[in-house]
Amino acid sequence: GEDVEQSLFLSVREGDSSVINCTYTDSSSTYLYWYKQEPGAGLQLLTYIFSNMDMKQDQRLTVLLNKKDKHLSLRIADTQTGDSAIYFCAEMGSNYQLIWGAGTKLIIKP
Amino acid sequence: KAGVTQTPRYLIKTRGQQVTLSCSPISGHRSVSWYQQTPGQGLQFLFEYFSETQRNKGNFPGRFSGRQFSNSRSEMNVSTLELGDSALYLCASSPGQGQYEQYFGPGTRLTVT
């Protein structure tokens, strides 16, 4: 079946890079997404990657996709306190629905 | 462009009542999806509409229903509310037709007492 897994917590020091990992199971997924959710807020689309790409970079964000291992990662360079949030990985399943991971809470240490 | 809007932002209802939530997608977007977010179950897909047609439905009971209007605005309805329906209900807008990035509204926080 379709399932997305990610670690529940990640703690990094301010200024370091954060790497959030995700594994998915549906090899037919065409789109893979990273969303950010701050407390009390909705979901903010950070970036997405097509399954025919290996990497996508957007300012401080770098997404790496390893299709063979069904592994997706999000790297945030120069992590700031404003990056504190829950980060969700999602894959597009059959029939246009998003299949979600449980979310990784990013904790920034001063 | 204006983002996705959802109304109301907060609702308190009692068990057995029914509720209607509204979502206005980004202008030009034709696909609207609904998700339920709870601490225990995380994010779960409810249904997706494209050009007034429901294309897909998640694994929720028939008490959950929705519709989409000709201007792409969408509503979802929950009848005979149960305590377990307390959740954040999120609406996502997408261009559709080969473009599948989904943009979310702020959500409606429903509390059932």
Produce a short descriptive summary.
Chain A has no helices and eleven strands. In chain A, strands 2, 4, 5, 9, 10 and 11 form a six-stranded mixed sheet that branches. A five-stranded antiparallel sheet of chain A has the order 1-3-8-7-6, with no helix packed on it. In chain A, a hairpin with a 4-residue loop joins strand 7 and strand 8.
Report on this model:
The complex is a heterodimer of chains A (110) and B (113). With 110 residues, chain A is an all-beta fold. Chain A has no helices and 11 strands. Chain A has strands spanning 4-5, 9-13, 18-24, 31-37, 43-50, 55-58, 61-66, 71-76, 85-92, 98-100, 104-109. In chain A, strands 2, 4, 5, 9, 10 and 11 form a 6-stranded mixed β-sheet that branches. In chain A, strands 1-3-8-7-6 form a 5-stranded antiparallel β-sheet, with no helix packed on it. In chain A, strand 9 (85-92) and strand 10 form a beta hairpin. The N and C termini of chain A lie far apart (41 Å). The model of chain A has no long low-confidence stretch (mean pLDDT 92). Chain B is mainly β. Chain B has strands spanning 5-7, 10-13, 19-24, 31-38, 42-50, 53-57, 64-68, 74-78, 87-94, 103-104, 108-112. In chain B, the strands form 2 sheets. In chain B, strands 2, 4, 5, 6, 9, 10 and 11 form a 7-stranded mixed β-sheet that branches. In chain B, strands 1-3-8-7 form a 4-stranded antiparallel β-sheet, with no helix packed on it. In chain B, a hairpin with an 8-residue loop joins strand 9 (87-94) and strand 10 (103-104). Chain B is globular. The model of chain B has no long low-confidence stretch (mean pLDDT 94). The chains are: A mainly beta (110), B mainly beta (113). The A-B interface holds A 30-31, 33, 35, 41-45, 48, 88, 90, 92, 95-103 and B 31, 33, 35, 42-45, 48, 50, 55-56, 58, 90, 92, 94, 100-107.
